[in-house]
Amino acid sequence: MKKPTNTPSQTHGVAIKQERGQLTHDRLIATGFRMLELTDLQEISIAELTREAGYSVGAFYSRFRSKDEFFDALIAKHLETRTRTQVYLFATLATDVLISEMIHNVVTYYWDHRKFWRAVLVRSVRDSAFWEPIRKHGHEFAGRFIERLTKEIGRSLSEKEESNIAFAFQVTLGTINSTLINQHGPIFMGQKLFIEELIRAFQLISDFDNLVLAVARKRKA
Predict the structure, then answer these.
(1) What is this structure's pTM?
(2) For residue 42, what pLDDT band results from cuts at 50, 70 and 90?
(3) Average pLDDT for 151-176
(4) Buried b / exposed e along 176-203 (16+ C-beta atoms within 10 A)
(5) DSSP code for 12
(6) Would you tell me which of 3, 53, 74, 202 could form a disulfide with 31, CB atoms 3.0–4.6 Å apart?
(7) Are 7 and 28 in contact, with CB atoms under 8 Å apart?
(8) How far is CA 62 from CA 22, 27, 208, in A?
(9) Exposure pattern of 20-35 as b/e (b: 16+ CB <10 Å)?
(10) Closest CA to 124 of 82, 160, 71
């Protein structure tokens, strides 16, 4: 028996339905991030989230089976956004401001989304597998930096040079995570000095200036 084929109007109707469904999904995600700028995750109910987004609770459950699954979608959006930002930064920033602009961007993002990121860190304590894609993303971040630097200096980095850069990222991201959880001093994350000191630490640990200056000297010779 020949299967019925969809008419153009039916196909268009499906496309519209899918587009609306994606719009609802995206608006719920955007609302979640916005609410997390002011309120801790555990204090946000699904009813409050959907009301703020302009949808019904049913619209939420037709896209997410639970609050944890919704949070997973927030993480996926976070990783997508940060990847896109990293690619853009490394493609456009001049070498002399590469580290300062990169660190400023990273610190500002996590400070602006600190309640969201605290929730991520708390969840990682009770669910180690949850952290794996975030760990992978951190390694990819360092990899993109190494790729940019390799192009800049015109050669592959040595194992020691790559190790220095990887540890600079570990120190930077680890300091941000620790500060957001514990808020220990004497320098706090909302302060300008926090960014300045992280920039200085990254430059020292990565040995960035020596790598770049060596190339500059070679080009002048």
Answers:
(1) 0.85
(2) confident
(3) 95
(4) bbebbeeeeeebebeeeebbeebbeebb
(5) H
(6) 53
(7) no
(8) 12, 14, 49
(9) eeeebbeebbebbbeb
(10) 71
Q: Which domains does the chain have, with CATH numbers?
A: 7-64 (1.10.10), 67-220 (1.10.357)
Nearest Cα to Cα of residue 41 among 106, 108, 120: 120
Contacts for 76-83: CB closer than 8 Å, 24+ residues apart? 77/29, 77/33, 78/113, 78/116, 78/120, 79/133, 79/134, 79/137, 82/109, 82/137, 82/141, 83/137, 83/140
Residue 187: its pLDDT value, please? Answer: 87
Q: What angle do CA 124, 147, 105 make, to 5 degrees?
A: 55
Is the distance from CB of 5 to CB of 14 less than 8 angstroms? no
